[in-house]
Automatic annotation (TrEMBL):
Keywords, sorted A to Z: NAD, Oxidoreductase
Organism of origin: Aerophobetes bacterium
Keyword Oxidoreductase: yes
Source organism, top-level taxon: Bacteria
Family matches, as PROSITE patterns: D_2_HYDROXYACID_DH_1
Record-annotated membrane-spanning stretches: none
Single GO molecular function: oxidoreductase activity, acting on the CH-OH group of donors, NAD or NADP as acceptor
CDD domains: PGDH_4 (cd12173)
Record's protein name: Phosphoglycerate dehydrogenase
Listed SUPFAM superfamilies: Formate/glycerate dehydrogenase catalytic domain-like, NAD(P)-binding Rossmann-fold domains
Domain D-isomer specific 2-hydroxyacid dehydrogenase NAD-binding: 108-234
Pfam families: 2-Hacid_dh_C
Keyword GTP-binding among UniProt keywords: no
Amino acid sequence: MKWKILIAEPLDEEGINRLREKRAFEATQKLGMCEKDLISCIPEYDALIIRSETKVTDSVINAASRLKVIGRAGVGLDNVDIEAATRKGIVVMNTPGGNTISAAEHTISMILALSRNIPQANASLKEGRWDRKRFQGTEVYGKTLGIVGLGRVGSEVARRAQGLEMKVIACDPLISKQRVQELEIGLFNLEQLLPQVDYLSLHTPLTQKPRNLIGEREISVMKEEARIINCARG
């Protein structure tokens, strides 16, 4: 008997075709569904593939009488009720390396945009002004980047920042000494790291421990001109 797979969001055609090539699978793509639509159709499917837009709530999972797997094409699982899925024995999977390079490049883009005041300069230019001196910004060369979380994305950000000749330091209680040596990065606890940085980049999952990791107290010990980049997610 074939597994019926529901693809609820846009995916690359190559990936969809690979599923359809397998005789054991019957893959159907339905886009733009609200929760009510999903609840209505989910009982006939064995697997559900989503990205970040589809909300797999407790109500959806309770209606999923055949569902065995929820696959997230991406990293964050904050749009899936994992506890409800676990209670029903449904496996929830993500693709941790799927967006690593994109997220790292996006982070570097944000750092450069902040350093050169690109959003402000763009808005000013659209209003018919040419405030070159006001928005000239500063180089990132020689500046200190602090990275909180040296996992897949954090490590890739570090490599790219080193390519820009930034000084890279980090905070990660779980990383091994060997890995730190490989990356050639200074390791500090958060209290030591914050006063040193010109840019602070966050790359931690949104679990209970790092929730509210950076607040008023932490910001108060940072340099006045420091910038915070948060390209992490749940």
